[in-house]
Specification:
39% strand; 4 helices; alpha+beta; 122 residues; DUF5318 domain-containing protein; six-stranded antiparallel sheet; elongated; single chain; DUF5318
């Protein structure tokens, strides 16, 4: 099977750091950043993997969830997928965007970490 490669990678780590800074300075309230909805929390629980990084708000383990987007995906667009499912989709010869989102199931912190175009690396 082909492996997954990524191009056009955009990092949102700087924005994450800014939100955390604003939270610590009182410029943002906890409910402003701990706002993961039910669907995002459920996807993190069922499709996400535990990260080596603790939640910056409450210290509990974070879950990394992969979301796929693209018109070529049809009904699969806008859904959480495992790395294996993503590999299967790129094996079909299509390119699409993958968003990496960290989610804290405990306090509902969430943040987009990266967005990148997935494609098959031969």
């Amino acid at each position: 099977m082909n492996s997954v490669a990524y191009k056009h990678v955009v990092s949102y780590e700087w924005e994450r750091a800014q939100h955390l800074r604003q939270l610590r300075l009182g410029q943002l309230q906890r409910e402003d950043v701990c706002d993961a909805d039910f669907l995002l929390r459920a996807a993190a629980r069922h499709h996400g993997v535990t990260m080596d990084r603790a939640c910056p708000v409450c210290g509990q383990p974070l879950r990394l969830t992969l979301w796929v987007y693209g018109s070529s995906l049809g009904r699969r667009a806008g859904s959480a997928r495992s790395e294996e499912e993503i590999a299967g989709m790129v094996a079909e010869g299509i390119e699409f965007t993958v968003h990496e989102v960290e989610v804290c199931p405990a306090c509902h912190w969430n943040h987009l970490l990266t967005a990148a175009t997935a494609y098959a690396a031969c």
